[in-house]
């Protein structure tokens, strides 16, 4: 059973629905990923970052670059365990409160939300008691 689980974890994920999802937001997402200056100015507007001792893994920019950024970089050709790794980033480390501020106008919550939609469409999502 363990071997079967390991195999499932490395199976590539992709479906027509998720391709469509990526195409719908492609222009907005690729532009946002391209223009992010990695300045970290968004960090202190995120209470999750502040609450977690300014751990860089909670920075808004880290969260979207390592979720939707990876999805677009790999053109949706991900393995299930890639998505499992994103689960904490997009659900546990972000509550989509929309408070993060980017001076150049990157809509960080919508990027993280799109990553959630992508994961959910592939059947990867946390159980309620995994989040809190
Ligand atoms: S999202 Fe905006 S504020 Fe955050 S690092 Fe990128 S450019 Fe800077
Ligand atoms: S939407 Fe997410 S990244 Fe933005 S401030 Fe809220 S918890 Fe932080």
Structural class: mainly alpha
Please trace the helix and strand order, writing H or E for each element: HEHHHHHEHHH
Radius of gyration: 15 Å
The coarse overall form would be: globular
Into how many domains do the coordinates divide? 1
- The count of β-strands is 2
Q: Treating each run of at least 4 consecutive H or I residues as one helix, how many helices?
A: 9
Tell me roughly what share of residues is in helical segments: 55-70%
Euclidean distance between termini CA atoms = 29 Å
- Enumerate the strands of the largest sheet in spatial order, edge to edge or round the barrel: 1-2
Work out the oligomeric state of the chains in this entry: single chain
Mean pLDDT over the full residue set: 87
In percent, how much strand structure appears in the residues? under 5%
Low-confidence stretches: none
Bound molecules: iron/sulfur cluster
Query: How many strands, what sense, and barrel or not for the largest sheet?
Result: 2 strands, antiparallel
Q: What do you see in this structure?
A:
The protein has 132 residues and is mostly helical. The protein has one domain (13-123). It is built from 9 helices and 2 strands. The chain has a two-stranded antiparallel sheet. α7 packs across α8. The structure holds iron/sulfur cluster (2 copies). One iron/sulfur cluster is lined by residues 36-42, 60-61, 102-104, 106, 108. One iron/sulfur cluster binds next to α5 and α8.
């Amino acid at each position: 059973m363990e071997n079967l689980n390991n195999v499932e974890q490395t199976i590539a994920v992709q479906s027509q629905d998720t391709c469509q999802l990526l195409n719908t937001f492609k222009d907005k997402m690729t532009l946002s990923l391209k223009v992010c200056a990695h300045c970290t100015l968004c960090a202190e507007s995120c209470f999750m970052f502040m609450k977690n001792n300014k751990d860089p893994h909670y920075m808004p920019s880290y969260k979207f670059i390592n979720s939707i950024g990876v999805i677009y970089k790999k053109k949706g050709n991900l393995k299930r365990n890639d998505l499992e790794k994103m689960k904490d980033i997009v659900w546990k480390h972000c509550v989509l409160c929309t408070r993060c501020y980017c001076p150049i106008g990157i809509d960080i919550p919508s990027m993280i939300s799109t990553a959630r939609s992508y994961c959910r469409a592939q059947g990867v999502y946390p159980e309620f008691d995994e989040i809190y």
